[in-house]
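Following up on my earlier thread - several people asked me to post the actual chain instead of describing it. Fair enough. Here it is, all 148 residues.
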Amino acid sequence: MRSRIKLLWVLPALLLSAAALAQDYRSVAVPRAVLFDAPSAQAKKLYIVGQAYPVEVIVVLGDWVKVRDSHGELAWIDAKQLSPKRYVVVTVPQAEVREAAAETSRLLFRAEKDVALQLLEPGTNGWAQVRHRDGLSGYVQFSKVWGL
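Reply from S.P.:
Thanks for posting it. Predicted structure:
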């Protein structure tokens, strides 16, 4: 009986832990989106982000979503301003985008810090397939971008 009681306490904790590990990313769908310090248009405006900027969803509260940006900042955004279309943002001075998922593969282009790249495939082995807004697509290392 005691083991059943312990299991009843442990099971919800395990489920919550698994849910906490699953990350949900979205991207800004509008040209300019205001992020607030509370879930209200009357709240204090914190900053503005541009279209395609990726954010991690932390909490959904009705029409408002609490998000984290690539710098770890938390803010609220109107849910209507988010898209399920995934983007990543370059976090290093320059990220090399290659033809295949390998260091030895041909270099296609370099993306500067804070450039948003559309995520085509999350990939494996430390590489993600991305597309630049100019149409070029290739592979970038996970460690060079945020939003995966």
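DSSP finds one helix and 14 strands in the chain. That should answer part of your original question.
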